[in-house]
Amino acid sequence: MDNKQKLQQGLQQMGLSLSTAQQLLLLEYVALLKKWNNTYNLTALRDEASMVSHHVLDSLTLLPYVAGAQTLMDVGSGGGMPGIPTAICRPDLQITLLDSNTKKTTFLQQAVIELGLGNVTVASGRVEAMHDKKVDVVTSRAFAELADFISLTKHLLNENGYWAAMKGVYPYEEIAQMPPNVAVVKVDKLAVPELNAERHMVIMQPKR
User: Fold this and answer.
1) 94-110 burial, b if ≥16 CB within 10 A, otherwise e?
2) Which residues in the chain show pLDDT less than 70?
3) What is the per-residue pLDDT for 40?
4) pLDDT value at position 44?
5) pLDDT of 46
6) Which domain of life does the protein's organism represent (predicted)?
7) 81 is in an annotated binding site
8) CA distances from residue 123 to 9, 36, 131 in whole angstroms, order as listed
9) Is 127 annotated as a binding residue?
10) Taking a C-beta distance cutoff of 8 angstroms, is the pair 75, 100 a contact?
C-alpha cells in the first residue's frame, strides 16, 4: 500500500472527509518533513509511511476538539504537529505555530510557504514571551507536563479559551497535580489507525 492509499484508508477509518487537494497537501507535508529531517532533526521517524500514521493521522485527532474555534496556537510545534495538518484541513482556522528552536521555525516557515497555508503564522521564541496574541485553543503534543503546560500558556487563552493537550498514556499523575483553578473537562481515549500506542486528548479550561 502506498502512502496515498495509507492516508485515504486512515482518513476513512477516522471518519474524516477531505478533498483531493487537502490529501495531496498532507502528503506534500510528509515529503517536506522527510526532506528537511536530515538537516533539522524534526522527527525520529525516517520513513514516510510511519510519518503518515504517527504524525499526520495522529495530528488530525485534534479536529473534533477545535470544531467551533477560530484561532489556535500550537505550542512547541517542532516539525509542525499538530498545527500544519490541522491547518490543511481547516483553512478557516487561524493557527500560530510557536517554537523556541530557530532551526525548527525555519522549517515551519518554509513549509507554510511551500504548502501555501495562508491561515498559518510562525512565531519563534519562548512561550512566556508571547504576549501579543490571545486564542480560542492552546494545543501541544508532548510539550510539557499538564501543570507546566497550563502555567506557561494561561496568558494565551482568550476569555472563553481552553486547552487541548495531546498525550500518550492516560496521564493520571499529571491530572492529580493540576492547579486548583483549572478544570479537566474531559479525557478521551483516541484511536489512530496504524498506531499501536495509547493516545489521549485532555481538554481543560480555567474555572470561571
Assistant:
1) bbbbbbebeebbbbbee
2) none
3) 82
4) 77
5) 81
6) Bacteria
7) yes
8) 33, 19, 12
9) yes
10) no
DSSP labels for 140-204?
EES-S-HHHHHHHHGGGEEEEEEEEEEESS--HHHHHT--TTEEEEEEEEE--TT--S-EEEEEE
Residue 68's pLDDT is: 95
CB 201 within 8 A of CB 188: yes
Q: Which amino acid is at 203?
A: I
| Integer Cα distance of 196 and 38 in angstroms | 25
1 annotated among ligand-binding-site residues: no
pLDDT for res 183: 97
Domain count, the chain: 1
Cα–Cα distance measured from residue 183 to residue 125, given in angstroms and rounded to the nearest whole number: 28
Tell me which residue of 71, 34, 35, 38 sits closest to 55, measured CA to CA: 34
Residue 153 in grid coordinates: 500558556
- What CATH code is carried by the domain that includes residue 192? 3.40.50.150
| Amino acid 43: pLDDT | 81
Domain that holds residue 39: 3-206
pTM strictly above 0.85 = yes
